[in-house]
Amino acid sequence: MLTREQIVTWLMACAEVFQQERDFLTGLDSDIGDGDHGINMQRGFAKVAEKLPSVADQEIGQILKTTGMTLLSSVGGASGPLYGTFFIRTAQVADGHQSLTLSELHAMLREGVEGIVARGRAEPGDKTMCDAWWPALAALADAEARGIALAPALAAALSAAEKGVQATIGMQARKGRASYLGERSIGHQDPGATSSWLLLLTLARIVEE
Ligand code: ADP
Ligand code: MG
Ligand code: MG
After folding, report:
1. What is the pTM of this model?
2. Domain covering 2-208, topology
3. Could you report the predicted ipTM of this complex, rounded to two decimals?
């Protein structure tokens, strides 16, 4: 079971993680984009951390909706609307919940990723954040089918996401700014896939504790 408190702890921890990883993500984005992805994520989650205390005692849907709205209004570029949509869509599935089972968490993340796709139209292999999420979702589906507990299921999802991130190195970007580079985008790790992996990494760590 993932509790409301763990969701809040996760989102607050993301603010710290994106502070720490800001230069790393920005470096990745400098290679194939405009070098602002770390700044975008750091700024967005700093705002989320500011807003969270006012909704931390509400149900999970409200917490996630506030996160999404905050990212939508404070982060520009491609990733702001995409991550904003992700969290707003997860909120719809989590609406009214004080805790989430693995199956509910899986449904929630799947819905969030569907939101990203509805907005950005990414396909597998396009070198986007979805190339981290899709393998993670597949691992969650598999864990759910096998009746695995939440912590090992998230560990499996994280490791699948990590492989997905590594695989973006060999991909040619077909969405977003990196696609302007054509074949020159090959050989670089996608910044958005990397930040998606960091979101999962942070969640997996909270659940392990
Ligand atoms: P911008 O490119 O506007 O500066 P960011 O640098 O914050 O925005 O985010 C770039 C990341 O956004 C990319 O690394 C990629 O993972 C993701 N991205 C861009 N376009 C799309 C899309 N259409 N679908 C999914 N993800 C996308
Ligand atoms: Mg950028
Ligand atoms: Mg930008």
Report:
1. 0.98
2. 1.25.40
3. 0.99
